[in-house]
Amino acid sequence: YVNHDDIYYLWSKVTWIRANMNILDATRVGKSIVASEENPETMIELYPSRVCDILISLMGEHCNQFYQLQSCVKLHNDGLRVDGMDTEEFCKSLRDIATMIHLVQLTLPSLVGDNFAARQDTTQGLLHHVMKCLDITTRVTEKCRDTRCPIRRGHTQILESSVCVLSTFAQWFLLFGQSNPEQYPNMIASVLDSVLPSFDYQIEARLQQSVVDLLYKVVIVCRPVCLLSVSSLQTLYRHTVAGKYVSYSSTARTTLHKALTLAIVLPWIQATDQQWEMREQNYQQFVQGLFTPLLSIGASDIADTASLSKHTPTLAHYISTLSDIASCVAHRETKSKQIVCQSLLPLVRHLITLLPLFENSDSQIFEHILSFTTVLCDALRVQLGAQFLKDLVGLCLANFTRCGGGGSEIARTTVEKFIELLTTLVREPSAVFKSFTPDIVKLTLQEIRECVGRMESLNSSYCYLVHSLLDFHWTYFYPRGKAHGSKEACQHQEELLALFQIFGESLLKPDFNLIKQNVTALMDLNDKHELFLKQVFVGHLKPTFIRVLLNLMFCGSMPIIEEDLEDVLFLLSVGNSGTLYLSVLSDYLSSVLHPSQLPEVKLELPTDLASFKINLKFLVNKTKFLVNCSM
């Protein structure tokens, strides 16, 4: 048995195996550990097999000792006690065992890939120890609910280390399932049955999170056919519906809701019959049971301030849960999205009917509902359908019209969420949503622009909406099938110029992040759509943008974005625009320098980027020097 100091030395001082590798006696591993300047990843890459052998051997020794120590643990009226052994020494041994189990995560690189087949039996033995430790520590945690008990805390440390090991080995489970499809379901069931019961006991928030993280890993990585038939997982579903975990940390509950959703709706690996109909029914039942308290809250229940305050925590909890569920399928398979969408629609409609009741209250529920609708549209906009989204936009527009003109926090939230909703629809590539473009452009240039003018904090999201409109709906202004390049015909020219005017105005604001965002947006539009070559831009906008960007360069107040400014100015000066650039530059210098100083400034236009940057920096510094001299 290796003492605590040796293990701590191995773990915290990043010391590994003797360079000559002559001493390999795992039972006396302390003699084979010396100080090393190498980091753990490097040592594992150099000696993966040796490190793995030593850690596995140590794991067996420590676990066997742990099993023997359990005979000393007795439950008394005042808590757990140790018979025949000093409690402090016993707890130190538990910490050693927890550390050793945690170290086993480092063996994973040597147990997968080319080594998988050769070390499969060894790995199964290793996991057998981990799950046996889980079973023991879970029973101890169940017997003693006093989190202050040192013996319980020691067992909790082992429980947490074991859960972390199983999470790390999720990829190994998948490889095992590919080579052993008959044994795979039983192994996954054993893992979950050994871990999930601990979630029902009074365990620390960190351990709650570790348990649900393991479940989430198994759900998204392993995805066995047997998943929904695992008894411990079925119990977890029942307890979640019953509200047993409402008091748990919000992070743990968020991960739990995502895991339970994905366990039902994600496709099973290596399954020919996905049983979608059965799973859709199961998920609808789960959602109906989980959100029954939300559906029971009607308009009459929140008619006055006292009733609203009473129901606010319940509404906030369930709206947050809905957001968690919607977001977790945002990038999943279409069928998974369809199942979730159909199950959530009744709840969405119910919340929408309640939304107007919160407009004039101090409750944050109004903001929560609007935030949820934004998340929902971002994740499931195709599944919701164009008509539903059109109705939703109409409702939000009505709220926007009633609330957006004020200066309250609800007014700001209404405008912000409405902008986010429109941005989500604008960025959807489906042709069905293109019919929204004229109305969204009109809203952007009129009602929203007026409101944002009174709410400076929304400039960033507003400009992002403008950028999205131009980028994703470029064909609204330049339809395909007509001549491409600088002579391409432009439609809706007044609206296009108005949108770019918003960009120009944003560059005049003293907001570093906003300027950087919009300079980057201009370069993006030029890369994708040759913006700087379009006749509309050259004839109406290019001189203004050059002057504004030159002013930002010469004022020198934003050195962090100087490189971005240099890049965009170079793009605005190339080709036939060189004469225009020099003309604007000359006019700008005439406005900041005394006429007698102008001959000292030589205007040049290099044709390559590197020379252009050097020349521009020299010109900026020379101009600053001359301005200072004239003071």
Structural class: mainly alpha
Low-confidence stretches: 1-41
Outline type: globular
What's the pLDDT, averaged over the residues?
82
Main sheet summary: 2 strands, antiparallel
- Tally of strands: 4
Q: What percentage of amino acids are in beta strands?
A: under 5%
Spatial separation of the terminal alpha carbons: 81 Å
Descriptive account of the structure:
The protein is an all-alpha fold and 631 residues long. 66% of the residues lie in helices and 2% in strands. The protein is built from 29 helices and four strands. The strands form two sheets. It has a two-stranded antiparallel sheet. A two-stranded antiparallel sheet has the order 3-4. Helix 5 (120-143) runs antiparallel to helix 6 (150-168), helix 5 (120-143) packs parallel to helix 8 and helix 26 (542-555) packs antiparallel against helix 27 (562-573). The longest helix is centred in the first third of the chain and has 24 residues, at 120-143. The N and C termini lie far apart (81 Å). Residues 1-41 have low confidence and may be disordered.
Keywords for this entry:
2% strand; globular; disordered N terminus; 631 residues; two-stranded antiparallel ribbon; mainly alpha; two-stranded antiparallel sheet
Q: How would you summarize the topology of this molecule?
A:
Layout (H helix, E strand, L loop, with lengths): L3 H9 L3 E2 L15 E2 L5 H7 L1 H22 L3 E4 L2 E4 L4 H17 L16 H24 L6 H19 L1 H10 L4 H12 L9 H18 L8 H11 L8 H16 L10 H15 L1 H4 L9 H24 L5 H21 L10 H20 L1 H18 L5 H18 L10 H9 L1 H6 L6 H14 L1 H4 L15 H14 L5 H18 L5 H6 L1 H14 L6 H12 L4 H15 L16 H21 L2
Helix pairs in contact: 1-4, 2-3, 3-4, 3-5, 4-6, 5-6, 5-8, 6-9, 7-8, 7-9, 9-11, 11-14, 12-15, 14-16, 15-16, 16-17, 16-18, 17-18, 18-21, 21-23, 21-24, 24-27, 26-27, 26-28, 27-29
